[in-house]
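Usage

Read records sequentially. Each one opens with the input sequence:
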Amino acid sequence: MKYFLSLISLVVLLQSCFQNKKYEADFIKKTLLYQDDFSSNNSDDWITELQAESGNRVGVNKGALEIDVPKGVTVWFKHKLCGDILIEYQATVIDSGGTNDRVSDLNCFWMASDPRNADDLFDSPRKASGKFQDYDTLRLYYVGMGGHNNTKTRFRRYNGKGEKPLLPEHDLEGKTELISPNKSCQIQLVAMGSQVQFFRDGELVYDFIDESPYTQGWFGIRTIENHMKIDDFKVYRIEKKQIK
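and closes with the structure output:
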């Protein structure tokens, strides 16, 4: 009996160690392509698509991009991204009693494009309504972190034809993948050849191999009925680490 209990304790300890272990990224940063710390007090590099006609507040405030909205919104980085890239930024979901303060939906799109005009996301037949369903016509990678009122985190690949399958291994409910309110976290998005990854605070959440990878497109911050701040946004050219 003592041996059995000791074995259980060892298994629990090992699981805890593995769950909290930082993943050593298999890429290296080569060149900083874009950077926005919002210290210039403007949001000229960002394009906002809003679902609600009123009650929205999206813009630079106190050195951060603040998003405070009653319905859906996507805030696109206006520059097209190509090749092997890392997108990283700090994000804080605010819960301080405000009208739109809701701990949920720290979401993002990356390598997004419209197959009807892959050269310009902002000059295509798509609906730029800010409504979530209207993005089903795009090709992109999506992570919904803390969706369904901070109970689920999900990864999907949109194929531009309305199909965005949710694989069982990409439907997560563990606390380590959800949102901690009023706490800044670092989000990192990787598109490197066929490898697509999502990190939160240095921990690998998703590692997906895409047989037909999206190698160019746009990045967007996505949320609904939320109040958050984005800061220290950077895009890097990366390359895979060489195995010695």
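Summary fields computed downstream for this record:
- Residues 1-21 have pLDDT under 50 and may be disordered.
- The chain is about 10% helix and 45% strand.
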